[in-house]
Amino acid sequence: MNFYLTYFIIAIGLFGFSAAFALFGVYAERKVSAFIQDRLGPTETGKFGSLQTAADMLKMLQKELITPAAADKWLFMAAPAIIFIAVYLGFAALPWAPGLAPAKLNLGLYYIFAIISIETLGILMAGWGSNNKYALLGAMRSAAQIISYEIPAGFALISVVMIAQTLNLQDIAAQQGILSTEKVSFAGFWDVSSIGGLFAWNIFRAPHLLIAFVIYFIASLAESNRAPFDIPEAESELVAGFHTEYTGMRFAMVFLAEYSMMFLVSMIGVILFLGAWNTPLPNMGVVKLATWTTNAGWGVIWIIVKTLTLVGVQMWIRWTLPRFRVDQLMNLCWKVLTPLAFACMLASGLWRIFLM
Amino acid sequence: MTLVQALFYLMSFIALASALFVAATKNLVRSIFMFFVTLFALAGLYVLALADFVAITQIVIYVGGILVLILFAFMLSGKETLNVIAQQRKQFISISRLPALLVAALFLIVFVNVIVKVDANNLEWVKKAIATKNDIQSNAATTENIGVNLMTKYLLPFEAVSILLMIALIGAAHLSRKERTE
């Protein structure tokens, strides 16, 4: 019975983590945007406004849940739950440190890819259920965008899988450091199996994976509906997109899903390209930095630091770049990213055959 | 009853109940969203049958692809069209339903026949496979197995399907292209 109890504790812990991250994420977003736009951001509630998001949460909890009279009530109520659960399920397969993963799936990456596509359905459900033209337009745009960008993202992921030869995220993570059981070489020629650190990360093991990483990162921005790909909720034309009609806790769920999605896609990027829980410090002669900083405790620290850095870059991009128009968005996806991703996949195949 | 059996019955119940709802409801959009539940329950059944790759592929293709495509068709086709479809004649037995009834009845006969005739616990080919160690264990990596088989034993069907999909892609691209004005 203890066996099942552990599972429940892990699941609740992951939920708590995603909620805590959303609180922190919203605060960070407001401070980052304030810095970029030369404002102060929240300052009143708590020291440096640090309690602002907690106060916002309290406000949301008390708000009335309004269901529009013409809405399809069941779909309207179920949609935020489906959107959030879809993202939350993805956390089940992510490895946090050597030997520390909620579920050891040998299809981990494929599972996450499948789970992310469910979010589209939740968004369409919200758009249709609200019975509001802005919501419907936002949902359609969001679905079109997510489906299109899944293709370059998928091929970027496949080019990593072809190098790694496994779909198990824990195995992919272990290959990028000193714990690897096979030979790791920097850019295909320098054996770094015992040096580890930065040089063993996937983006340096095969240089074309750097391009794949950029493709994946751009596509992941589109999949989490973040600027510059936020046409589904373009506030100047669609009020708030698919969540226009949502209030109170239901709106909070949609928000929670958005921030969890940011963390999820960043963490997948870190696991596949940026060395997962491996240390960036290499072994240098007698100074065995990599050996000292590779264990369960350090692993959690490294992966959180790397993921938060990527989340930070996402925020930076959101407040720096203007929004894409729909046709520009599709042009970028189909005419630039998709061919490049195909080229990366081809390069991966050749790399695996001739250089590994 | 073991946990696996309990899960099997739970998944089967969800799949059947939601499928019944899909077939019976007048609200077409809700029936599509209910179909999503059916597909999920089916994926769960696949996992119980040690076909995890098939289960995830089912979610990627049906939920992420086909369901979203059907929904797109619905959303592009306005409420009036949907209301006309929803207001069909209510009577249960009518001549227009005869073909459907016939097909359903024939399927029922086939299924009952299968259940009555097959002794599922002592199938010949299952016993043979277990005897020759040609069965899949619960800790086996099925993905590698599927990959190797697709590239060796089933290469021709695989390539034929890929050519078919290629034709469909080119056709779709051609249809959606703007006509050149002369």
Annotate the secondary structure layout.
The complex is a heterodimer of chains A (356) and B (182).
Chain A: H1 2-36, H2 52-62, H3 73-90, H4 108-130, H5 133-164, H6 169-174, E1 185-186, E2 190-191, H7 202-205, H8 208-223, H9 235-238, H10 248-273, E3 283-284, E4 287-288, H11 289-292, H12 296-318, H13 326-355
Antiparallel strand pairs in A: 1-2, 3-4
Helix pairs in contact in A: 1-2, 1-10, 2-10, 3-4, 3-10, 4-5, 5-8, 5-13, 8-10, 8-13, 10-12
Chain B: H1 3-24, H2 28-48, H3 52-75, H4 79-86, H5 98-117, H6 124-131, H7 142-151, H8 155-175
Helix pairs in contact in B: 1-2, 2-3
For the structure shown, list the relevant keywords:
heterodimer; A: about 350 residues; mainly alpha; two-stranded antiparallel sheet; 4 strands; globular; B: about 180 residues; Four Helix Bundle (Hemerythrin (Met), subunit A); 2 domains; 8 helices
Can you describe this structure?
The complex is a heterodimer of chains A (356) and B (182). Chain A has 356 residues and is mainly α. Chain A has helices at 2-36, 52-62, 73-90, 108-130, 133-164, 169-174, 202-205, 208-223, 235-238, 248-273, 289-292, 296-318, 326-355; strands spanning 185-186, 190-191, 283-284, 287-288. Chain A has 2 domains: 1-60; 63-354, no CATH class. Chain A contains 13 helices and 4 strands. In chain A, the strands form 2 sheets. A two-stranded antiparallel sheet of chain A has the order 1-2. Chain B is mainly α and 182 residues long. In chain B, helix 1 (3-24) packs antiparallel against helix 2 (28-48) and helix 2 packs antiparallel against helix 3. The relative contact order of chain B is 0.06. The chains are: A mainly alpha (356), B mainly alpha (182).
